[in-house]
């Protein structure tokens, strides 16, 4: 699941929602966004997204 330091969601009415330090999944019916605390937000009225990653990803041993 991709991680974004900053995620901007542009809605169909041209409003924008911004999220910081989240993981997300794009789906045919919208986007699902998880905060670092595990909270889930599902949006269906999206036009496009912009995700920015400013730091290097750290691989987790597992």
Structural summary, described in words:
- It is a single chain.
- The chain is an all-beta fold and 62 residues long.
- The chain has one domain (3-52).
- The chain has no helices and five strands.
- The chain has a five-stranded antiparallel β-sheet with strand order 4-3-2-1-5, with no helix packed on it.
- It is globular, with a radius of gyration of 12 Å.
- It starts with a strand and ends in a 10-residue tail after the last strand.
- The mean pLDDT is 89.
Weakly predicted, low-confidence segments: none
Termini distance? 16 Å
According to DSSP, the number of beta strands is 5
Cα gyration radius (Å)? 12 Å
Task: Please state roughly what percent of the residues sit in beta strands, choosing from under 5%, 5-15%, 15-25%, 25-35%, 35-45% or over 45%.
Answer: over 45%
- Tally the helices: what do you get? 0
Helix content: under 10%
Helix-strand sequence:
EEEEE
Q: Structural class of the helices, strands and pairings?
A: mainly beta
Mean pLDDT over the residues: 89
Q: Which word captures the global form?
A: globular
Q: How many distinct folded domains?
A: 1
Strand order of the largest sheet: 4-3-2-1-5
Q: Can you summarize the main beta sheet?
A: 5 strands, antiparallel
